[in-house]
Amino acid sequence: MNAKKLAGIAAVALVLFFVIAQPGQAAGFVNNIIGSLRDAAEAVITFVSNIFS
């Protein structure tokens, strides 16, 4: 088994353990990531809007 596949399996196992052991914190973490992605998308949209207006 190559190292890349083993690292992927280990990452999935770690995420599953985190979700099962502490679902509230895992949900908060996902919400923070989604919020950050939304903020980044809004910043890009604002940037592009300002360029073309």
Summarize the structure.
The longest helix has 29 residues.
Commentary on this structure:
It is a single chain. By secondary structure, this protein is an all-alpha fold. It contains 2 helices and no strands. Helix 1 packs across helix 2 (23-51). It is elongated and about 55 Å long.
Q: Determine the number of helices (DSSP H or I, runs of at least 4 residues).
A: 2
Global Rg: 18 Å
Shape: elongated
Helix content: over 70%
Largest beta-sheet details: none
* Structural class by secondary-structure content: mainly alpha
Distance between the termini: 54 Å
Which residue ranges are poorly predicted, with pLDDT under 50 across at least 5 consecutive positions?
A: none
Order of helices and strands: HH
Total beta strands: 0
Bin the strand percentage: under 5%
Mean pLDDT: 94
